[in-house]
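Hey,

Quick one before I head out. I ran the complex with S-adenosylmethionine overnight. Inputs first:
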Amino acid sequence: MDEEQWCLAVPKREAEQRRRRLLEEGLLDRRYKPRPEGDTVLLPVTEEVAGAVRCEFEAVPERAELPRHELVGGIAIMQDDDPEAARRLLASRPSLETVLFPESPVEGEYRTRRFAVLAGAPTTRTRVTEYGLHFDVDLALAYFSARLSTERQRVLEGMGEGERVLDMFAGVGPFAITLARKAGLVIAADLNPDAVHLLVHNIALNHAENVIPVLADAGHLDRLGFEPFDRIIMNLPMAAPQFLATAVGLCRDGGAIHLYALQEKEGEYLPQIRAVTRGAVTERLVRTYSPGKWHAVYDIVVEKEDC
Ligand code: SAM
């Protein structure tokens, strides 16, 4: 039976991207099935978001409750070691190839996890599509999180054309390759050889010829004779603040640093930032991590003279 519901009418070619974004933001109403109308697709939303209109939808038939999971391309990462639930999850989506269970937390210098395969193909490798870009990832060999996709777009939107960008902890390249859309040059560094191997592959996959991969410790980047950068990405939440002085040294006066940090209280890293620059700082919540802990980003304008 049809029911009236809030929805967004989006052009067909943007529909999949918008559907994923709404899903990520928790705004897609999964009780109803998106449906085409003319040149648009009507996406049901949970509330009256900007641009929403009322439309009739067919309710999705009730299905057995699926286990909690995070999607990374064709891989689902479950929170419980439950092979029976994993098989149900695998059967629920044709796009799923594998269901994994993390046997360790994110650990070590390379920020990777060990996984057990609960269902499907025995692999930790998959392809993620994010805002029209493709990233081949191997979750056991190199860090990747799809949860920062909105954050990458926010930084891209704030950028000017032709900037010189440095990504100090690039992983398989999601920030570097996203920002390459506007940048003149992106230097993308990581010390995990497997991450840099996938980064090289992803640069080619996305024809991002203005991204230069570098296998290096971030602490050594100031010895390589780079011209000053306009913008620096520091996405190593547990330890990035200790590389702040190096980053400020590599940034031009008036340039920007985006420092990602895991914190327990507002402004926790301001003293470390203030020790290296007096420029303007804006702090934002990126996402919650665990009760009482969250990922924050500090957008820092580098002012050198006053330091
Ligand atoms: N920016 C990527 C992303 O968003 O997917 C990766 C972020 S991951 C949290 C941090 C990365 O920093 C890992 O790939 C790890 O190998 C790398 N890393 C850790 N310590 C490093 C260091 N001292 N120098 C360079 N890279 C480092």
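The chain is about 20% helix and 35% strand.

Talk tomorrow,
K.
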